[in-house]
Amino acid sequence: MFERKIESELYKYYEAKDNTKILIVYGARQIGKSYIIRETAKTSFKHYAEIDLKDDFETEKRFANIKTTKDFYLLVGSMFAGLNNSEDTIIFLDEIQYYPHLMTMLKPLYKENKYRYIVSGSLLGITLRHSFIPMGSITEKRMFPMDFEEFLWANNYGKDVISYLKDCFSNLKPINESIHQITLRLFQDYLLSGGLPDAVIQYVNNRNVSEMRRVHSEIYGFYNDDCSKYDEEHKLKIKRIYNLLSSNMANKVKRIQFKKIEDKDDSNLEKYEDEFDYLFDSGISLPSRAVSNPVFPLTESRSKNLLKVYYNDVGILTNILYRNNIDAVLNKDKGINLGSVYETAAAMELIAHGHELYYFDSKKVGEVDFLINDYNNLRVLPVEIKSGNDQTNFRAIPKLVDPNGNYNIPLGFVFGNKNVVKKENNLVTLPIYLIMFL
Which residue, of 88, 102, 125, 282, has the fewest CB within 10 Å? Predict the structure, then answer.
């Protein structure tokens, strides 16, 4: 399988002593959570026990009536021989959301310290939002599809070359043209495959576009099925919104138009708050919220009813838009506008690096694709994404960084296809793949 950035955090967790809190890893389905936990935990503990609670829920339901830690220990002991103590035994509770009562048992399991535990699940973002788990017993870690740097690792791209690119980003140095062409092509490959590990295997290892697209379609179906299972009252609305995302991103105005969800003119975000909370908490969609004033911190001027939503994986989007026609993304078909594709990849990258996404749009200024909080310098950073060959065709972002303007933003970024690394008039222009360092 592939190297993932979360590995170092997992090993740090395994090595910690003194009754370490239970680690909960959550995120969308099929992003590699179970595999990476399994492979790292097996090598870190003498005794490893994995319990697939989804499988148990659908078959024997052995954990359905477990009410006490004593019952839990007896059942686990009947399933796994030789488990010892917290120093050399770890129990992996996978898909724990199928048994919410086990979530409330995590605190006593932590306190009794009989074994070490790690917990994962595909809809845990929703469970964590709606379940009461006393603070002090758990640590949460959200996981995402592979980001672009992890995709480079999967392609055996040298880490020394990544360090070279990071130096070029940090110090605004020109990039060797050959390195640029290779990396840009890999970024275009990433737009096709996305970061879902099973799809990356088919594209990177097997060079099988048809199988890669089969994986994308299958996972898209899984996400739709998960929506359907969530709540009978809301499931049709959730599926409708999710299925509208690709056509919405193709519009000139990419924000959600709520009236299209049920063809009702009086619709707004408040009416569909539960549905959008599901899409975001489950990890299958990424929100970008409008701000009325681009000042730090951005949440203070967040709009209540203006929202852009991206798929959690760019490969899902390119599968919906282009299927097996990879030429559409590899720039051999000049008539294709890849704006929504590039934006989705950028959203993935920024979210994976811990940024909340915002955007700014006004009639006087125009629209800026992304705004993020720069907490180190207590300022806002505007980010513009250009998918074509013209990296100077923008209206809004120069006004935000104009020192004589109204917004007092000292720096902005424009990312595009060309091998241009420069700072001019408070605007930094860079190749698109360098967004992995922002």
Answer: 88
**Mean pLDDT to the nearest integer, 402-421:** 93
Helix (H) or strand (E) holding 70: helix 69-79
Please choose, from the candidates 231, 331, 333, the residue with its C-alpha nearest in 3D space to the C-alpha of residue 282: 231
Query: Are 3 and 150 in contact, with CB atoms under 8 Å apart?
Result: yes
Tokens 């605004």 correspond to: 172
Contacts with 241 (C-beta within 8 Å, 6 or more apart), sequence order: 256, 261, 272, 275, 276, 279, 309
**Tell me: the pLDDT tens digits for 337-380?**
899 999 999 999 999 999 999 999 988 899 999 999 999 999 99
Residue 193 CB neighbours (<10 A) = 28
Query: Taking a C-beta distance cutoff of 8 angstroms, is the pair 407, 364 a contact?
Result: no
Q: Which residues of 171-294 form beta strands (DSSP E)? A: 285-291
**CB contact at 8 A, 411 and 426:** yes
pLDDT of 304 reads 82
Please tell me the pTM assigned to this model.
Answer: 0.94
CA distances from 258 to 247, 251, 316 (A): 13, 14, 23
Cα 316–Cα 322–Cα 323 angle in degrees, nearest 5: 70
Count, residues in the chain = 438
Q: Is 172 left (phi over 0), alpha (psi -120 to 50) or beta?
A: left
- For the beta carbon of residue 171, count every other beta carbon within 10 angstroms: 8
The long-range contacts involving 407-410, CB below 8 angstroms and separated by at least 24 positions, are 407/294, 407/295, 409/294, 409/379, 409/380, 409/381, 409/382, 410/379
Secondary element (H or E) of residue 48: strand 47-52
Comparing 212-216, 272-276, 418-422, which segment has the lowest mean pLDDT?
A: 272-276
Compute and round to an integer the Cα radius of gyration of the chain: 23
Q: Which residues contact 389 (CB under 8 A, 6 or more apart)?
A: 417, 418
Say which residues have a Cβ less than 8 Å from residue 210's Cβ, sequence separation at least 6: 324
List of long-range contacts for 324-329, beta carbons under 8 Å, 24+ apart: 324/209, 324/210, 324/213, 326/192, 326/209, 329/188, 329/191, 329/192
Q: Which two tokens stand for residue 387?
A: 């998918």
Tokens of 428: 């930094």
Percent of the chain with pLDDT over 70: 97
